[in-house]
């Protein structure tokens, strides 16, 4: 069994106040009309019915208005209570404000037609100017409350729409903030991996060699490489902290690495990979005075080469590691090849985060990248190749 909703506190106050006011006016002998079909005590019945409907003005406005209309008609057969009429006007207002959208649209028209009909009808029947008073009263009881209800409802709906837009705007702002934070965390994760992974890999390989080979000269060389990579890694970490703070030690923005630093990067890899039988070459086929590329492109190319060299130090078999750059048709091509196969000696473990980071960098620039073993006619074995194409010109709208 469905439980009826409890009346609102304000509705209870309206009902009780109306009932007590009507009873007081009846006790004082205050009536609207003179002698009618029924005596004065009967006016309390429409009053009680109208007061009861005031309890439903918010929870069941259509029912309250229908019953209230019958009570208003019954009130006309009694000397009449002004409170009953006032309560009916409030029911009409509540039906427009709290009723369905269809009722809110129709009731003002019904009230207007009723006012016109009452004015014309009584004027034609009585043929006296005083008949216009009935039309005015009808408009006061129906059309006035309906118009007021429409205005209040429109303001309420506008306020609700504005509040909903504000909530949606706040939600979108929070989503944008969360996406920005996620993107920034991913960017910094790529930077951290690309900056430090190569140095730590070299440290891990040479420290393992120093521990496994009981030779003072080998240990001394390994410790030298370890120290060099430790210093370089510390410098890279300091630069990363500068990126996080968005300013260097002297207040200038921290400079991002460019393709001009590839020579030093290859030399560093050559020093770290000599013990593993690796040699490194750099073939820069760009013009002798290359045009400066957009900073994101140079950074992505630098990081791709850096990560590829790091992977070669960790996984490549003895042989030659080649780095090649070319500028063709509005794009920069980066290609890194290394021997693919088993290698003797110590190896550093890999996590796969480097390949993911390279793909993310290339995807952000709208380029293409492939990474995997390929057949090389000039080599006796397969080689591992990383090939990336980065657009160097912005698309015109």
Overview of the molecule:
- This protein has 397 residues and is of the alpha+beta class.
- The chain has two domains: 9-170, no CATH class; 258-397, Heat Shock Protein 90 (2-Layer Sandwich), CATH 3.30.565.
- The chain contains ten helices and five strands.
- A five-stranded mixed beta sheet has the order 1-2-3-5-4, with helices on one face.
- Helix 4 runs antiparallel to helix 5 and helix 8 (262-273) runs parallel beside helix 9 (295-315).
- The chain is rod-shaped.
- The two termini are 64 Å apart.
- Residues 247-254 have low confidence and may be disordered.
Spell out the key features of this protein.
single chain; about 400 residues; alpha+beta; Heat Shock Protein 90; 2 domains; five-stranded mixed sheet; 10 helices; 5 strands; rod-shaped
């Amino acid at each position: 069994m469905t439980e009826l909703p409890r009346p609102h506190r304000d509705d209870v106050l309206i009902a009780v106040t109306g009932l007590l006011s009507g009873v007081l006016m009846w006790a004082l002998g205050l009536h609207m009309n003179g002698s009618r079909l029924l005596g004065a005590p009967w006016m309390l019945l429409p009053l009680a019915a109208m007061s009861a409907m005031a309890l439903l003005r918010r929870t069941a406005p259509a029912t309250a208005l229908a019953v209230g209309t019958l009570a208003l008609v019954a009130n006309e057969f009694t000397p009449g209570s002004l409170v009953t009429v006032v309560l009916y006007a409030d029911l009409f207002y509540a039906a427009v404000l709290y009723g369905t959208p269809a009722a809110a649209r129709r009731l003002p028209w019904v009230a207007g037609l009723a006012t016109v009909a009452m004015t014309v009808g009584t004027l034609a029947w009585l043929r006296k100017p005083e008949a216009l008073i009935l039309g005015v009263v009808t408009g006061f009881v129906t059309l006035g409350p309906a118009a007021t209800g429409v205005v209040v409802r429109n303001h309420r709906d506008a306020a609700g729409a504005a509040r909903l837009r504000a909530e949606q705007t706040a939600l979108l702002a929070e989503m944008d903030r969360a996406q920005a934070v996620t993107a920034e965390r991913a960017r910094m994760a790529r930077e951290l991996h690309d900056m430090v992974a190569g140095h730590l890999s070299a440290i891990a390989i040479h420290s393992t060699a120093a521990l496994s080979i009981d030779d003072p000269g080998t240990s001394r060389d390994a410790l030298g490489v370890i120290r060099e990579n430790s210093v370089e890694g510390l410098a890279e970490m300091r630069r990363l902290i500068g990126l996080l703070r968005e300013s260097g030690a002297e207040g200038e923005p921290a400079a991002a690495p460019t393709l001009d630093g590839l020579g030093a990067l290859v030399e560093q890899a050559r020093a770290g990979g000599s013990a593993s039988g690796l040699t490194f070459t750099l073939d820069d086929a760009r013009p002798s005075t290359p045009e400066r590329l957009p900073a994101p492109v140079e950074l992505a190319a630098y990081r791709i080469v850096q990560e590829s060299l790091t992977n070669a130090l960790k996984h490549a078999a003895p042989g030659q590691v080649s780095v090649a750059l070319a500028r063709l048709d509005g794009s920069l091509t980066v290609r890194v090849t290394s021997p693919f196969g088993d290698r003797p000696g110590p190896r550093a473990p890999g996590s796969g985060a480097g390949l993911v980071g390279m793909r993310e960098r290339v995807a952000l620039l709208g380029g293409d990248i492939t990474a995997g073993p390929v057949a090389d006619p000039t080599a006796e074995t397969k080689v591992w190749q990383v090939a990336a194409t980065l657009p160097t010109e912005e698309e015109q709208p």
